[in-house]
Amino acid sequence: xxxxxxxxxxxxxxxxxxxxxxxxxxxxxxxxxxxxxxxxxxxxxxxxxxxxxxxxxxxxxxxxxxxxxxxxxxxxxxxxxxxxxxxxxxxxxxxxxxxxxxxxxxxxxxxxxxxxxxxxxxxxxxxxxxxxxxxxxxxxxxxxxxxxxxxxxxxxxxxxxxxxxxxxxxxxxxxxxxxxxxxxxxxxxxxxxxxxxxxxxxxxxxxxxxxxxxxxxxxxxxxxxxxxxxxxxxxxxxxxxxxxxxxxxxxxxxxxxxxxxxxxxxxxxxxxxxxxxxxxxxxxxxxxxxxxxxxxx
Length: 297
Description:
The protein is built from seven helices and 14 strands. By secondary structure, it is an alpha+beta fold. Strand 11 and strand 12 (195-200) form a beta hairpin.
């Protein structure tokens, strides 16, 4: 089975302009107790969100989005909920309608009427991350920020075989690998061992066929987390943003400004320019050469 990680679209991307929403609690959050590991007693999740479910929404796209994460819960549109139930997908339960009490339109009012939205609880039982195969790294607690950036670390000492808590500071994950024997057909789940909002290929196919808005699915073998990225990794990210012409004008401008500053060609942030026509090709060539000369970790 092929897995993906569900996230909101990158700001400025095509999917972002198509239909991203941000949701925030409208009132003081009422919450229950946080779940604890039955073996070691450590907290292994966020406090349970209790009613009333009153939310404020910000819209960023041409359509109302269908997806948002609040804590460990999903908030999804009625359309996505119906697709989930009609296709007998597994992993979301306890659908309860939420009340959208205020809407702020950041890029104009989206098309159509405001959908109904539902809170849903994500399965968090037994599906497990293969921490070794995923390249997960923990640095010792005494390591400096520079050491966490520059060094490659291994797995920290295992502190609990049930919740998979490890000693040290979690630094990075190179890709996501699920232990196949722990998966029993769930289409949405938070994995034991460190990664949330994982979905099946079946759910991705249904969402794409249904033109679901406001969600991005990253293949598990391309998903990474790095809380202490190197300068070259940041530069590679900016170069990728600039070269992707599906990204919006502002995002590509900002990426070019960063690259230009690195090679000593600073660009005034207050100046608007065409990211294709009004740039120095020497800057792009210099950054590309630098990246090609430096292999990825």
